[in-house]
Amino acid sequence: MENTEEPSPLRITPTVRALSSALRGKRPGVAHGGGGGGGGRGRRGDGEPAAAAADKLWFKESSAKNLRSRDFLSPTTMLHTLYGGGQVPPTVLSRVLSLRGGGVLPLAGGEVMGEGLRVRVDRAASFGAVLAGGASEYMKPSVQRQGRVVINCPALHPKPNALPSPGTLTLGQLRTVLVADHTGALLRRQGFTVSYCPVLPEGSDITAFLHTLGVDWPTVPAGWSSTEEKVQEALAASPYREEEDPSQRSSGGGGGGGGGRGSQTEQQEGGGEKDGALRVNLKRYRGTVCPTWHSWITPQQTARLRRGQMKDASEMKYGDQGQTWDDIIRVMTSATIRFELLSTVHTSPVTLDVQKEGGVSTKGPRGLYPEIPEVSQLDFSALKEEGEWLLLFNYLIPFSELLDQSGQSLDCEGGGARVCKFLVSLSKDFSSYYNRVHVLGEPLPHLFNQMFCRLRMLRALTDLYHSALETLHLPPIRQL
Predict the structure, then answer these.
(1) pLDDT band at 273 (very low <50, low <70, confident <90, very high)
(2) Gap between the Cα atoms of 429 and 62, Å rounded
(3) pLDDT tens-digit profile of 69-127?
(4) N or C: which terminal CB in the chain sees fewer CB atoms within 10 Å?
(5) What are phi and psi of 74, to 5 degrees?
(6) What are the beta bridge partners of residue 112?
């Protein structure tokens, strides 16, 4: 009977695990669908371990320089540990290069060199496998999970006889709110049902301000608190609740320093709780978000400043567009503030350059071209530019595993920073590629295949951007 099973999406972690098993002389046990815990992007220099389970036998390369000659490397020191003199037996090398299926990237070849055993991926086959279905399997976590999560954000809890307001909110507290918002979005992508505490009064100034930053915090009619009380009671009754150290409490209330250094979360399986929900409590932390001038600046002032910069940049390029660009400017303002406050790991202070001017740049289309054919009609061996493989290998393929790791790490240690840094790094590498390569070349038939392959890749990268930005509640915009 013909095997009609759909091939598994390519994953970094299963590839590294299979390579490790094969190098040890074991029968490879390849996990389908990939998983968290490894396989992320390596360092910009010599690479980094791609999976903890692999005992550092293999490194996934990520720098453009190293990717010219190899995609995975087992260093000489590791080869000496496994084999006398570091000489890999031909049968073992053959086993490594014959790995197939189960999410393992197709391999094109490998050899032992001075730096170790280096392996190259079949890049044309990888492009075809990833882009064949529009790369949709790479835009979501590889595994859907189930459960309920309550995210408690002390920065929004009311002070005695006073609700939080835009005027009293600090940048540190806003940072805590954005971490909570982003964490909830990541957990929902994993399949969890997420609730937030506290709920805010409907129509209040604080909810309107948060809405301008893309934060849709849950609200209830003013004076209605039954749900709030139930959540508070459940949190108070939890055997895993935090006992706050009074020495760590700041006089500011409502989250103290507001999580100025961010927000650490504590997570436990709520087996002893009546509702069985997972509790994620954003603790109070001292710390600051430091502007480069003004001894103190509020989130409202920061938002007005960034909006003015976005508006000035827009008018400088396109002239006064009136109300037409209001939504775009709002999204750009929200994106700027989110990236400034989330790009740094929450346990570290953030320095804001409130005098920094924003800038925008775009490239326009060069003409009309034929309709893009089906993927099956394209020859992806035409994608030979090193930047193309770097974008696929470092971003498109690993993104699903990045979402897996974010969903499994409910302590939020660097969760927001990981996605922000991923997007910043992607933007730098994509900008370098796009400024160097003419995607839309001359409309000549012999150039169409390469152009169409590149356009398919750009379509997948667009979806990647949209998927990552969605976790930050940033809608895509049509034009910069």
Answers:
(1) very low
(2) 11
(3) 999 999 999 998 888 877 889 999 999 999 988 899 999 999 999 899 999 999 999 99
(4) N
(5) -105, 110
(6) 117
